[in-house]
């Protein structure tokens, strides 16, 4: 999710498509939060790791 967010964010910025930029930024933030929660050992949706 994190990598997809980065890709969509960059595509939105280079192609000047605002919706891709917004979706990419949201996915980037959600992916980062889930990665941090999973790395500290807090279960996310019943799983210890999220990937």
Break the fold down into its secondary structure elements and pairings.
Blueprint: H1 2-15, H2 18-39
Helix pairs in contact: 1-2
Output the helix-strand order.
HH
Content of β-strand: under 5%
Mean pLDDT: 85
Low-confidence stretches: none
The figure for the number of domains is: 1
- Report the structural category: mainly alpha
Rg (C-alpha, Å): 13 Å
Overall number of strands: 0
First CA to last CA: what distance?
8 Å
Give the CA-based shape. Answer: elongated
Percent in helix: over 70%
Biggest beta-sheet profile: none
Number of helices: 2
Protein name: DUF3096 domain-containing protein
Transmembrane segments: 6-38
Pfam families: DUF6131
InterPro entries: DUF6131
Structure, described:
With 51 residues, the protein is an all-alpha fold. It has one domain (2-38). Helix content is 71%, strand content 0%. It contains two helices and no strands. The chain has helices at 2-15, 18-39. Helix 1 (2-15) runs antiparallel to helix 2. The model has no long low-confidence stretch (mean pLDDT 85). InterPro entries: DUF6131. This is DUF3096 domain-containing protein.
């Amino acid at each position: 999710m994190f990598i997809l967010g980065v890709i969509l964010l960059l595509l939105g910025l280079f192609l000047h498509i605002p919706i891709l930029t917004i979706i990419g930024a949201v996915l980037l933030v959600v992916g980062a939060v889930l990665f941090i929660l999973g790395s500290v050992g807090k279960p996310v949706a019943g799983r210890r790791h999220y990937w």
